[in-house]
Amino acid sequence: MGNDCQFCGTSVQLPKYGGLIINRKSLSKDQVPRNLSVQYQDEEVLILNYQSLEELQSSLALLFSEQTPAYWVHIGNRATSRTFPISIQHLYERLTHSDLASVIHSENFTSHLQPIVDVHSNELFGYESLLRTTEQKVHPGDLFAFAHRAGLQSMLDQKARRSAVKTKSQYVEAGKKMFINFLPSTIYIPEFCLKHTFQMVKEFNVDPADLVFEVVETEKITDVEHLKSILDTYKSSGMKVALDDVGSGYSTLEMLSLIRPDYLKIDRSYVQNCHIDLQNQEFLFKVMDRAGSLDIKVLAEGIETVEEWEWLKTLGIDYAQGYFIGRPQPLPETELILP
After folding, report:
1. Which of 16, 22, 111, 301 could form a disulfide with 129, with the two C-beta atoms 3.0–4.6 Å apart?
2. Do 91 and 310 form a contact (C-beta atoms < 8 A)?
3. Burial of residue 202, with CB atoms counted within 10 A of its CB: 0-12 exposed, 13-18 middle, 19 or more buried
4. How do residues 223-258 score in pLDDT, each as one tens digit?
């Protein structure tokens, strides 16, 4: 199994036996995996045989115990006579944590739904889709961290989006929003990389206007124009976009006038104890002022107490999310009791 683009992650189905093809120019002698038989070698190419994935893993484990090599190899599948490229670090991670690679490849996860309410009316506005594994209980953060180390981040991000859109079609009524996280770093050419997203929206017969794609990124984004092109591509297809964790990371207030999202979500650190924390209040006043001038709706996440809820309601926050309102559930909560 392959992919249309190598950036989306090469196959996680490594051949059970095959060849490890190495360009000699890319490494020194002490970077060659040991304990594997040599099938072919010359001045440019070295081909090592492995009889099982366990043998390949043990050979790489020995290599990585002494150093951290950084080069690309090709894996040769004897059954199909085909090869595919993969970095030696990604290969090592996938072999060492084959259980996590299997979760991603087999899509052994689902989407839980956390309610979002309209603060002005106390009515259900929509849900955020949150990834949860099924057969193996793996924390989503750990799964995405592994995917990053193993070169499978784009693949996981794609499949998580598909799970969210499918869940929307099955359980969330038309007219209610579905907030879906995505990683901008996995989207290289928006017009190409987002085709699969637009295709799945049609496949599951979901109204694009009900979908809000929410930027999530752990690393600071410096290419603002690229991010803007991603969001504009979503918008041009009738979908909405949101910036997550405003106040931390890259989502600074200064970017709002450039990006012009439909919604911005305030980082929970500014929501916690907002009814008594003067610094948080000062920041929240600034956010509301800037968002209001740009006609951007504001969503506060991480609300856990009635005091936080009441203060934010007085402030004029548009939408709210958090354990005080409802926890993530496999099926949507339709009846919410709020003060």
Report:
1. 111
2. no
3. exposed
4. 788 888 999 999 999 999 998 877 654 446 667 778
